[in-house]
Amino acid sequence: MTNKFATALKGGSMNERVEPILEPKNTSSASSPHDRPSRKNTKHVGGYFSPEVSKQLRQIALDENSSVQVLLAEAIDMLFHSRHKPTITQKSVKEI
Q1: What is the rounded distance in angstroms from the CA atom of residue 58 to the CA atom of residue 66?
Q2: Taking the complete model, does pTM exceed 0.90, yes or no?
Q3: What are 63-79's pLDDT values in tens digits?
């Protein structure tokens, strides 16, 4: 299928095949401005909760001069401890 607009711009007829101009893919190893070195070798763990849960969690973090991530790490460690599993999150979560 030909693109009438592109054909008209090139001054060709509708019977001519117009090849799209493709930009070369960036294969360089340059890092993206969106890369987060602190997230290297980590995996996102999350869930969907009501807005009230989110608000309360953020309020606790504010009251304790902490962060939601630190509070979640504490909760996960408590869960691991109650299930007799090694508490590993403190090794991977830094105070923010």
Answers
A1: 9
A2: no
A3: 999 999 999 999 999 99
